[in-house]
Amino acid sequence: MQKLAIQGGFRLNGEVRISGAKNAALPIMCASLLAADDLHLDNLPDMHDVKTMVRLLQQMGVRVAEQVQGATFNAAQLDKLEAPYDMVKTMRAAILVLGPLVARFGEARVSLPGGCAIGSRPVDLHIKGLQAMGAEIHIEHGYIHATAKRLHGAHICFDLISVTGTENLMMAAALADGVTVLENAAREPEVVDLANCLIAMGAKIEGAGTDKITIIGVEKLHGAQHRVMPDRIESGTFLVAAAATGGRITLTDARADILDNVLDKLRETGARVEVAGDRITLEMNGRPRAVNVRTAPYPAFPTDMQAQFMALNTIAEGGSIVVETIFENRFMHVQELQRLGAQIEIEGNTAVINGCEHLEGASVMATDLRASASLVIAGMVAQGETMVDRIYHLDRGYEHIEAKLSALGAKIRRVS
Ligand code: EPZ
């Protein structure tokens, strides 16, 4: 079991390159199943979930030629239309092979994802949508077994906003017979990046990025080249870290236009934030001011940034309220932050934080991806050494995070 040993009290200074977005790369890799030609992806991040998705596609028969920060996927010949439990249980995003497999091959067997640390996270909306498009679906022995002669277009209104639900059905609709309208669709930038890749492959999609997406199905899709968008959550994570430790950092290869709400919140803490093209600079002198956050679907404040801002609030000036409206159990980092001396009270989906002058280094345990990032940020501001255990959670969704943070001046090293 690897751990991160962090010495607190060091300001962050310098430049850091933002990697490709995990939550765009994962659905886009699954889009390769929709065509029999090469799909070449650039700017793929080097992180565990991407490696897991490559393995999942390869065990189905997709040929993957990996290059530096990219890969070429070819799904011309598949020998297995299945996503097995041992791979799905470690990565919920594996559900994203369901729509493409049913759309192109008329069949799929995908293990139910099961719950995870941050909540039950059902896939009922994915299933309902495919049934509306004509798929026959049976749940047996923990697997979703879907069959369809050929999917047909449908008018689908989501009961609630689902990012991968929108992505799965958009991919399925791309090859369906007729027109599909997705209402109450997710507007996340990663949905737009997937749509742009599908359009490059020949799909007919309008409205991605709005809550109404219209897809006109085509007979076949062809190969394409696509560069994965920058990771807005990695961007936000580094910016919050610098706002908490103090210092001056510049993100490169980043996109500010998809971070409006997060940048506004950072300015509220007293940080100075400047944008110049694909560079975002944040400067913080002195102690941050506490900020209230309430998570909601894009373009509101992202749930994937909640834990990071909570870490900042624990040492900020004043009190703050953090409300988590997306997942029913995304406060796993609270008890670990309390071990560092943070003053946090939880009432249902609301956390009330009283900012302290200092945190004290301690041993803490990561429970999920963004909770891990929150503990790293807290460790960088706590007095003394903080040891973060179970950092495989962190490695799932951040590319070489301790190397990037060390290059900015953090005292952080990986120990076994
Ligand atoms: C995506 O997860 C992201 N993952 C998550 O990022 C992110 O937190 C989440 O969207 C919300 O923005 C990827 O894109 C790979 P949802 P997803 O379907 O699609 C409920 C990270 O840290 N729901 O938008 O799984 C669900 O339980 C990860 O990078 C249903 O009830 O989330 C949740 O409460 C964590 N039925 C809410 O909707 C369904 O069929 C939003 O979930 C689907 C979802």
How helix-rich are the residues, as a percent range? 25-40%
Widest sheet: strand ordering: 22-23-1-24
Number of extended strands? 24
Shape descriptor:
elongated
- Number of alpha- plus pi-helical segments: 14
- Rg over C-alpha atoms, rounded to the nearest angstrom: 21 Å
Distance between the termini: 6 Å
The biggest sheet, with number of strands, parallel, antiparallel or mixed sense and barrel status, is: 4 strands, mixed
Q: What share of residues are in beta strands?
A: 25-35%
- Described by its quaternary structure, the protein is single chain
SS content category: alpha/beta
> Average pLDDT value?
97
Low-confidence stretches: none
Bound compounds, please? ligand EPZ
Could you explain the architecture of this structure?
With 416 residues, this protein is an alpha/beta fold. The protein is built from 14 helices and 24 strands. The chain has helices spanning 22-31, 48-60, 85-88, 98-105, 124-132, 163-174, 189-200, 232-245, 260-268, 306-314, 332-339, 369-381, 392-397, 401-407, and strands at residues 3-7, 12-17, 38-42, 63-67, 70-74, 82-83, 107-111, 136-140, 143-147, 155-157, 179-183, 204-206, 212-216, 224-227, 247-252, 272-276, 279-284, 293-294, 319-323, 343-347, 350-354, 363-365, 385-389, 411-415. A 4-stranded mixed beta sheet has the order 22-23-1-24. A 4-stranded mixed beta sheet has the order 2-15-17-16. It has a 4-stranded mixed beta sheet with strand order 4-5-3-14. A hairpin with a 5-residue loop joins strand 12 and strand 13 (212-216). It starts with a strand and ends with a strand. Bound molecules: ligand EPZ. Ligand EPZ is lined by residues 22-23, 26, 92-93, 119, 121-126, 160, 162-165, 303-304, 326-327, 369-370, 397.
